[in-house]
Design a protein that fits this description.
2 copies of one chain form a homodimer. Chain A contains 10 helices and 15 strands. By secondary structure, chain A is an alpha/beta fold. In chain A, helix 2 (about 45-60) packs across helix 7 (about 245-260), helix 3 packs across helix 4 and helix 8 (about 260-280) runs parallel beside helix 10 (about 345-360).
Chain lengths: ~350, ~350
């Protein structure tokens, strides 16, 4: 096969080294004569996999000891329901910052479970998307059970680097699409959750970090398999977890550790994003509509001068081994998702192609 | 590697041909230059996989047109919450038949969501586990929103072949561990659900068949990603599904079709179970405590005359390539799970070993 680069927003590409190892041991894992997906989650062999993955994730993100690390079902969107069901009662209020489609989805789902208040939404200023900074005042800190935001919006390509100031209110972040892409201070958060299918592993897995102080806030009606306290008490094995996804997540964590950890990948991610945004900004052809302070390092959204060119761009990109560049239907145009697993050479190949395409059609 | 046979109750072995194909196309699926787990669930390529899997499952089980086939998150236990949340309101009542650990778990979880009434429980008569037949009378048919039972109990090795008579009440079956092992008449059920990790694929996937008439019974508070109507409306892609598990399920369905379908595998399953139960019954050494009418064809539970021999049995079995035979901690002893993917030769190898072990230690 010729080299292809897969810019899919998710399920996204996984590190090549991880995929190669997974393939090599697919039929006979650790000499057991079967796949790791064919053994009991309660076997000592799988428990070792599970514990190592948790430990490696703790190391990578420097997770404080008083946080539970959960591996569960349902992906990121499952947490749209799980968060309100675990952190507050029906009569309580929670605050929402809406910066794009995903945070809007979380806000909408939460309305079923409590009094959800949208405090801030992104806006367009001089044609550039920007997100007002949010800081809860004293009165708000009394009022809200938690403050929810999405750290990176895959659809719009909007990333929030400057944390909302929640004061004494637990800060809850959907980091589905930028977890492990840069250093974060976990201690500033009440809950961090992430669907796996961008920077962690295959779809179907949700990783949740929860401050232990929040484990007893769940309501009785929370489905047991989504209940943080129940999950924590049972080492995420109250029910059979998605074991193969957990195993692959573990391989990704190990790959990241061996590649220098989060600090090293953050540098590479910055480099990749710079290269691509420069290519856009330095052309008169491509446009990006996000204010530089909020441009995502994971999902780079850009438009061609004329949408009639979109299908030609996609077809020629495909011919050059550059896959899955079509933007989300909500915003149109193009989107290059350049998560941790995308090598710099992939982005360089894309920018070269983009420059060539602009020369021909500009 | 030498031949091993994996009797794990779940996550269980998958058909060897399926695993070999999955390994061969692990890094480059259909010439895309990446794995099927690395492509968008909304790509035409994955949608083709998803639709083929659904169609094959419909063919295998002869699913009537007026049933939705859903592929979701959360496994079988996720459905312990999803079923009451989708089929009844808080003030309604539902009936439960308890034949072992799994149906007891479903009954317990349902108590959070409605008035759950346990009508029948299994009992031991002359040292043999038996399950009273349940038939709802007229008054009960007025009273209950649904009747739930578990078609096969993996822990106790108890299978119910004679359907409970629910009359006009929707019959709900947990078929996690015996779906696709024998012919069933889907039209007799309101809902059939199954965690994938026994006869379908890897863990993390739940397959649900729902009569369309029941799709509008869900309550507003049902988490959207578990809501049957929402799942059906969105082709099980309201949120990113566990795509790799869905793909593997599709390969398993295709393997089953190519092997003669459910009727053919049912014959083989009967043959395998007969062989193993005969080995137990014809010895003075091994014992099984389930009444012949309720013996599971999927999970054969047996005890040695003296539990002190258990660890020796397991160690010697392991040396002979016979893995994961330890019984569930609730019932002790041994358990051989012989799902569709277990070949007859695996069971024959086990019975030979058992006879030899009995000769030495009897």
């Amino acid at each position: 096969m010729s080299t292809t680069y897969n810019f899919c927003a998710g399920p996204a590409m996984l590190p090549t080294a991880v995929m190669q190892q997974a393939q090599a041991e697919f039929l006979d894992w650790h000499g057991l004569g079967c796949s790791v997906m064919e053994i009991s989650h309660r076997s000592k062999e799988f428990i070792a996999v599970a514990e190592q993955a948790e430990q490696d994730l703790r190391t990578l993100l420097n997770v404080p000891k008083d946080y539970a690390v959960l591996f569960g079902h349902g992906g990121g969107r499952g947490q749209f329901s799980a968060v309100p069901l675990n952190l507050a009662q029906q009569h309580e209020s929670a605050a929402f910052l809406t910066s794009g489609s995903w945070s809007a989805g979380a806000y909408q789902e939460a309305q079923k479970y409590l009094n959800a208040i949208e405090l801030v939404t992104s806006s367009s200023v001089n044609g550039q998307v920007t997100v007002p900074h949010l800081s809860l005042d004293k009165e708000q800190q009394q009022r809200f059970a938690y403050l929810h935001y999405c750290a990176n919006e895959t659809v719009e390509g909007v990333e929030i680097n400057c944390l909302p100031e929640a004061g004494s209110v637990p800060l809850v972040a959907d980091m589905s699409s930028n977890i492990l892409s840069k250093n974060i201070d976990v201690s500033k958060f009440g809950v961090i959750y992430a669907g796996a299918q961008k920077n962690i592993g295959p779809s179907g897995l949700a990783v949740v970090l929860v401050n232990n102080d929040l484990l007893d806030k769940g309501r009785d009606s929370t489905p047991s398999f989504l209940n943080y306290q129940n999950m924590a008490k049972n080492g995420s094995m109250y029910n059979t977890p998605p074991t193969y996804a957990w195993y692959l997540a573990g391989l990704v964590f190990r790959w990241l550790l061996n590649s220098g950890g989060v600090a090293a990948i953050e540098q590479q991610n910055q480099q990749k994003a710079n290269l691509l945004y420069q290519c856009i900004d330095q052309s008169d052809f491509y446009r990006n509509h996000v204010h530089p302070d909020f441009r995502s390092r994971m999902n780079v959204v850009f438009h061609l001068p004329n949408p009639d060119l979109d299908s030609l761009f996609l077809a020629e990109a495909e011919k050059n081994g550059l896959r899955a560049l079509k933007g989300h239907r909500i915003v149109g145009g193009m989107r290059a998702s350049i998560y941790n697993a995308m090598p710099l050479i992939g982005v360089a190949t894309l920018t070269e192609f983009m420059q060539e395409f602009a020369r021909k059609h500009g």
